[in-house]
Amino acid sequence: MDKLNITNSNVLRLYREALRLKQGEKISPWMSLIHLTERCNHNCYGGDCEYADIRSSKNIHELNRDRALLLIDEIRELGSLSILFSGGGEPMLHPAFAEVIERAQSNGLMVGIFSNGSLIEKYNLAPNIVDYATFIRVSIDAASPATFSTVRGVSGSGFKKVIAGVTSLVEERTRKKKNIDIGLKFLISKMNIEEISDIIELGLKIGVDTIQFKPLRGGKNEMNQNEISRAKQLIKNAKLAHPNFIIGGTDDKRHDLIPCFLTPLRAVIDGRGDVMLCNYFNHRRYTHKIGNVYHKKLTDIWFGPEHRAVLQKGIDTKGCTLYDCRFHELNKELSYIIDNFGKTLNFV
To answer: 157-163 contacts: CB < 8 A, separation 24 or more?
Structure first.
């Protein structure tokens, strides 16, 4: 591997765990990710959503209340430090969502939420989220009702619901003097490039902490090179003006992949109860499944023979090139450090 410029602060922090993983040891995941439900009330990008095929099948799953609550206890038992509610559907559609995030926080877990934000006001969830979550990132992908309707596949009035929900979170945080991080996510496509500057201004006005930009990958709305250049320049200008407010960008991190050995740092459980190797599993479900929490405890699955066998076989990186997984860069940098400085760093 070519010499790398090690700039990611996570690299050295994860070094010892990564070394143990490369040596074949089993460790507890730092984070667990739960897809509470496969249901969603948006139809993003006209079917470009990774999970669109699930919702069109009429065979939609979600964890039942009792198993979801027990799963929180098992995640704590497994040794995870944090839990992220995200996934193939909108987590706030789960009827026990507020109860589940409270259970997670009471177990001493840091709680993160990825959501479309459309139900915060409807179900009066701002008090629960502010009380129990460490951060929430709301996918909005537009700065106007018209573009929102096109991109998210719902009526333009849905835009106002999301803005109202995010605003209620900011107001609740101020009222309670909490430290929850509130952010927006903007998935850049052909349809919304020219609203990049507008969403930044809107986010600043509402009072969110960050806006994350990521490029849409795959589908008819993926940007061409000219559009990527245009988006990149807009984001570059915005970062100069608001350096701590803008995160992410348009860089393609899918190429030059090496075999992934970091998946044991993250446990993933979907709405069917399946335990998966990583959160980009929908296109390779049958090779990434290592068990089901309706059949075994999560701890038994995680430290069981099926998980070890799959890890020893290795992950086919061809399936990883579809998405900008954050492990791509970490894998390269950690592998370089371990291969070149492993013995030296063991004394640090």
So the answer is: 158/42, 158/118, 161/117, 161/118, 161/121, 161/122, 162/116, 162/117, 162/118, 162/138, 163/202, 163/206
